[in-house]
Design goal:
2 domains, single chain, OB fold (Dihydrolipoamide Acetyltransferase, E2P), alpha+beta
Amino acid sequence: MTVEVKVPVLPESVADAVIAGWHKAAGDRVRRDETLVDLETDKVILEVPAISDGVITEIRFGQGETVSAEQVIALIDDTAGADEAVEGAAATRTAAAAKPAVVADRGGTSRGLSRQPTRTARIEAGPAETPAVSPSARRLLAEHDIDPAQVRGSGKHGSVLKEDVQRYIDSETRAATTPAPAAVSTEAEPAQLREHRTEVPPAAGQRIEKRVPMTRLRARIAERLLQAQHNAAILTTFNEVNMQPVMDLRNRYREKFASEFGVKLGFMSFFVKASLEALKRFPAVNASIDGSDIVYHGYYDIGVAVSGPAGLVVPVLRNAADMSVAEIERAIVDFADRAARNALLMEDISGGTFTISNGGVFGSMLSTPILNPPQSAILGMHSIRQRPMVVDGDIVALPMMYLALSYDHRIIDGREAVQFLVTIRDMLEDPSRILLGI
């Protein structure tokens, strides 16, 4: 029976997708739930799995081609796998019956009567089971041209994880006296990976140029940034916050928090909580413009910008006002992990009423963040630096952070923007106010 592999249903805001790369070719055997192809939309990378065991008989679209929702992109013969399994079992029984005798010579070593021991061993073993490979491990295998069968998996049912591949690479590097660079086929890898590949530096005197098409996600990011610049009256207001109280609180409860909730206590949860209190006081910052109307949202969906292999994405903490500090930290860790593996779902990054972006993790000291349409404001965090500050007439060194709030001046007045940012600063410099709501 022929099984059709279709493009999954896409959200209303996503019209189509591009074939980023196939993990299988026509004629390859596949297993149910094994990833067949990566589809790149203007928001996320979608992995399309096989819906049954079998053999791929046809691939209808190649890498770089555009496809739409529910379009058939490949065919699988689910009877081929069963037929080959029966034939393989019969071959195994035949090989076992015809197994050549092996005798030991006087030196204690074995010598077979067959001239092809390797071939015989393969027949006796039957078809080898290919271990399941996680998406991040698969990409690392492709980058280093490593056969998955060479890597011992430590995951469930022997599945190969990214850590397993890295351990294999490290051991091979240590063992090799003159290691050679791994040959990598760029034809077999998705476009978004090739875009971020580290190239060998050109020789002295060479003037090399390379032209590559934008990935779908990068093109969408560019489009949205231009849209924000052209369609909104963006202003940015700045302030600074003394992070010592938050740092003292984290240090005091770091170990207890981790043992109690199984996650580290980071800075972002404090900023989310402080932003929630400020948003409640200044609802225009949580609003958006729809035509000639202002839409005031009675809920708080906070976007947290994270960096992935293909660019910046903004997964959303739904109903963040109902989340505890531990729940916020767990969600952020999960978002960052899945963003690194291109495993975020459409619903993870859709919507949002306010965004927080932390450029400080990359060393940024000050920047003006750009709005994430149709939102009306975005908070920019930056790196913490020891700076001389005047406290009660004395100069002391304090861990200071610059804050930036970019906002749409069409619906947010300058007074509201400044007071909003001051509220966040006050909450962070006295974290007990977050608990008390004062």
